[in-house]
Request: fold
Amino acid sequence: MPIDYVIDHARRRVMAEGRGVVSSDEVFRYQRDVWSRADVAGYDEMVDMSGAEGMAGDSRESIRGLADLSARMDTAAGESRFAIVAPQESLFGLGRMYETYRALDQRSTKRVGVFRDRDEALRWLEGIEPEIG
Reply:
């Protein structure tokens, strides 16, 4: 599976990595497998797509459907953070689309941020906001 993940219960965080060409089916499977677990409710998340070559299939429609599924699976336990690392132009753009769809969905309790750099994403997950300017 091109999406591997580790659950860090001490930090209340799920860390995932995409590699190769990632299909929509794999992304949806990851979402369902991980976020249907009661023990990760309210956890922060980072999906690092640095090792991914791209997404297969109709990614724009898939992103909209994924944002809808994700918002439906969100817990009411409070806001958490979801960082997407995507240094590639096409994946960064898809990440920003996902961020927008999630922000517009009133069911969503995750704050999404899209980053080109893993270290910047980790700082954001820790609550250290990037300097502007």
